[in-house]
Amino acid sequence: MAANSTIAAITARIVERSKPSREAYLGRIREAASRGPHRSVLGCGNLAHGFAVCSPADKSLLAGDKAPNLGIITAYNDMLSAHQPYETYPELIRQAAREAGGVAQVAGGVPAMCDGVTQGQPGMELSLFSRDLIAMSAGIGLTHNMFDAVVYLGVCDKIVPGLAIAALTFGHLPAVFIPAGPMTSGLPNDEKARVRQLFAEGKVGRDELLEAESKSYHGPGTCTFYGTANSNQMLMEIMGFHMPGSSFVNPGTPLREALTREAAKRALEITALGNEYTAAGEMIDERSIVNGVVGLHATGGSTNHTLHLVAIARAAGIHLTWQDVSDLSDAVPLLARVYPNGLADVNHFNAAGGMGFLIRELLKGGQLHDDVRTVFGQGLEAYTVEAKLDENRRVLRMPVPEESGDPKVLTRIETPFQQSGGLKMLSGNIGTGVIKISAVKPDRHLIEAPAKVFHDQAELNAAFKNGELTGDFVAVVRFQGPKANGMPELHKLTTVLGILQDRGQRVALLTDGRMSGASGKVPAAIHVTPEAKDGGPISLIREGDMIRLDAENGSLELLVDAAELASRTPVTADLSHNEFGLGREMFAIFRQMAGPADQGASVLF
């Protein structure tokens, strides 16, 4: 099944735009691949260090350069619920590798912070930068030149994008991403949000709030709402980095273990030592990137990926722009409703048909490129399945049912929840930004109101507590961009603005920072660039200026006379309080070197 003419045309322009950088990239990884098994270039002393702790059998295999060696890059820690299951994965992978005639070694660990812990805290200012640090850390592990393929163990917000950047930087090596799955369903997400609002209004205490939060986040696995972490899993499957049907299987189940073993064996099958060599950088091309963007729109996924997908694409020499993302949104229908874009969680999504159903419907509508390479070795048609266990506890894949298990959660291409995707680009005299509209009611897509200006999210929260946020307004929270303070998520504002909206006020957020990957019902123009620290137009806004945010037409305008605007001087802010504490002093070079949001807010590209 071929992609329709609109998807094909957008893909073609990305291909054309990317030709110089993509050709240079492919030249580099092909030259690296031409050197053959890389342990052959190591001296005896180098190799001896590399397998010193291996068993005699593994040493014999590695010394001969004929058996594949599988590198494991792990983001394990047992503070992140989504990453705790990875504690036992290396031994599972080593066992699977031995059964397949190969060897597996942990090549390195990468940092993995939990945005859920750092939301609203100073540590959140390191979150976005951790993506590039993760890519660098994975690079250190792979620099040993010991490996024929790599498996990547990561789930959450910046971890998977960082690992994907690393996988494509080492694009001559095959790469398989192995998920850990979502935690089982706990307190419904909408009930958790309700208790948060009650707490913010002083109607319940901390004990009640902590009880609700603990019932929602209660065990191993990914948080069950559809934020960045679960959007990551969707992306890795629809882009072909996962084995089919593996994204949303719960941790600690026999199927989860079988999928992990299968993924490890598959990684060994696609090395240059076999007949199905699948270099990650050759496998992921412009079509794969477009498929990822399409999946993001069709599921109402995380706004953070307007940053991450741009950076991931750059790692493969591909130039994806926000205009591409916006145009694809106009061409892709919304097929899933998962919190905050609905009441269901990702377990309900998976039970309704999950990724297999979604991919089948998008292929049917011509929204995806089927003719892509994947780690499974076939086009995306092979991903229109659900994974189960056979009588021998091996993975068995069956076609997904014709009908959704719950049409209110996952629908067919003929009956979309809306005709366009969940993300839109905004542009105007304030700059360029992004808005997630899949969870915003249509009567809130246009907000025209006076500005209330803040230079810190704490200032806005204090104004709320003091009863100062009356009437309709657009909250301008600036100096939150990558160069100012690392572009933290402003998730704590979700509750406050949600309360005001529920009271009948017409409110919106305008910021050069980020919102949560689970951005919800309040219209939010985020990632605005140029940022205030660079003297962008957002730094010209004054208290009381009228702002017009029009999500339908994609415009973001400061309704001030052009001559008046030209006469203004950009506001500056004292950012010294962002420079120290909880490690922020070590990231000064990142703040200085970070690129703009529409280019991925990266220090690498």
TrEMBL record:
Superkingdom, natural source: Bacteria
Similarity comment: family membership: Belongs to the IlvD/Edd family.
Gene this chain is encoded by: edd
Binding site for [4Fe-4S] cluster: C156, C223
Residue span(s) of domain Dihydroxy-acid/6-phosphogluconate dehydratase N-terminal: 68-381
Binding note for cofactor: Binds 1 [4Fe-4S] cluster.
A Pfam family reported for this protein in Swiss-Prot or TrEMBL: ILV_EDD_C
Parts of the chain that traverse the membrane: none
Keywords for this protein: 4Fe-4S, Carbohydrate metabolism, Gluconate utilization, Iron, Iron-sulfur, Lyase, Metal-binding
Protein's recorded name: Phosphogluconate dehydratase
Dihydroxy-acid/6-phosphogluconate dehydratase C-terminal domain sequence ranges: 408-601
